[in-house]
Amino acid sequence: MNAMRNKVQLIGHVGQEPEIKTFDGGKKVANITIATNDYFINDKGDKVEQTEWHRVSAWGKVADIIEKYVDKGKEIAIEGKLTHRSYDDKDGNKRYVTEVVANEILLLGK
Predict the structure, then answer these.
(1) Nearest to 11, CA basis, from 78, 103, 56
(2) Which of 4, 18, 36, 94 has its CA at 20 to 30 Å from residue 108's CA atom?
(3) In the chain, where does DSSP find H-type helix?
């Protein structure tokens, strides 16, 4: 049952070109956003599409794959864990971030 704890799987389209950062020592992180779509029927019987945006970060080999093969609009599947963090912005305001830290990626589509 431990394998199911804090596990996220998403299939969606990349919303912008990946942001790649390389740190001292060669450690690399890739940051992307993924759009997922869901559909439901509203009170009037109309089919409505709802798009959700997800922040995704990936480290190491997964970041290398994103850097080489992922572009804006590419359909991908990711698996990872949900994380929450906070930081103080340049004005001293506390900001909160929720993101998926991907440990696997699958390239879909063409």
Answers:
(1) 78
(2) 4
(3) 60-69
Mean pLDDT by 10 residues, the chain (110 residues): 84 96 93 95 92 96 96 96 94 94 92
E strands within 15-108? 19-22, 28-41, 47-59, 75-88, 94-107
How confident is the model at residue 5, as a pLDDT?
86
What are the CA-CA distances from residue 48 to residues 17, 31, 37, 52, 65 (Å)? 28, 29, 10, 13, 34
| Token digits of residue 16 | 């912008």
Q: What confidence score (pLDDT) does residue 109 get?
A: 78
